[in-house]
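Notebook entry, structure prediction.
Reason for the run: the old model in the group folder had no record of what sequence produced it. Starting over properly, with the input documented here first.
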Amino acid sequence: MTLYPDTKIYIVCPAKVKTGGPELCHQFVSTLISFGVEAYVLYYPLSAVPFDKNDPVHDAYKKYHAPYVFELEDETRNIFVSPEGSTSSFYDYKKIRKVLWWMSVDNYLDNVANMVKYHLNNPLDYPVPKFFYFHKADDDIEHFVQSEYARQFIKLNGIRDEKIFMVEDYLNQAFLSRAAHVDLSRKENIVVFNPSKGYEITAKLMNFAPDIDWRPIKNMTAAQVQELLATAKVYIDFGNHPGKDRIPREAAISGCVVITGKRGSADNDIDINIPREFKFGAESNVGDVIKKIREVFENFPDAHAKQADYRARILDDKNRFVQEVATAFGINNVNRGGLALAQGFCDGTSLLVENLQRKSLAADFIIDDMMSTAEMAKLADGLILREQNRNYLRVNEKLVEIITRDDAKFLYQEGRINKFALLEPSDAELAELNNFYEPNAADVLNVERISSD
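New structure, fully documented this time:
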């Protein structure tokens, strides 16, 4: 899709909800901003999830520092992106260009089925909502697909190749960093499963082999899930695989051997590119699966090696996602990221900003834990502006966001920050920056003082 200098891109997302879809929405906006594109999360409420309009961002996604709105500008130069579960909102707007992002084929079908079922029982309750249904009137809509499974589905239903762009997703970079330190030699004979995915088959497996140590992912924090996956040798998933699910990838990158069924995205060799010996369809019996699990227990290094291609693809997901977003919007210059002042507020801050401007460089972030807080915004007597629960310093005509060190590290991993600037740093300051952020040497700018005379 063509981007104009004043194009704004919006992606609709439920407020205060933490699942794979909302995280992908925030990754998408963050990536567009790193390209210099004006992009927003367009929040809407879910009846079961109360939220305050002054704080609609789930805590897990605040680190993305994605700007948000509750209404969009319905103009032809702008673009509205909607996951498949929110297509009724397409028909509220007349001018804006539209993209339907197929994150989950099965969720789309479930939503349609539930809507029809409701109106069968309550035909006069309210008008049947409009929704996308592969009609010719919607030929102007373009399509992103998060999985090969989704691509096959929409092609089967008549969407032309030139209207389809592969835009996948990627695992949280903090998760990948921790997973890189998994010690495979300490793996135990444990099978991990998600009880909300294919539990009917999993229950049969547990009844067939009660001696195996089966561990459900249930009522656990993200850190606890990662610790469990780092300990186990096997992860199983016999669910419906409505898209390219995250937990199988998290398991694989944590060193688990992944065993799946053949439903949804698991059936093709792109979305889950593991050897077919690790996939069991309806033709298989319980004993076949248990036999494979025991083989993995007994010869884990060989089984783990057979899924090296899967892990390599997962590790490349982020790079591929960035390129896919660029391709979908015709972005040719893929230089990404902004500049962060790494010394926080100090006597030399204004001089550093001035010297950067003389080099035609502008700061995008100031890293300062204390000055990023709401309390400091109140005490700063107008020096610091607070918008959308984030603090900003006005530098000439630009607002420079003030962020914490932890968020700066995350944004560097994400690509939103690509340079750290310091004003004549001491050896101790450089050592602290290198130890904490682990930047590439070329990403650290040592700015010399320039006389203002």
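Summary: The two ends are 48 Å apart (CA to CA).
The old model has been moved to the deprecated folder.
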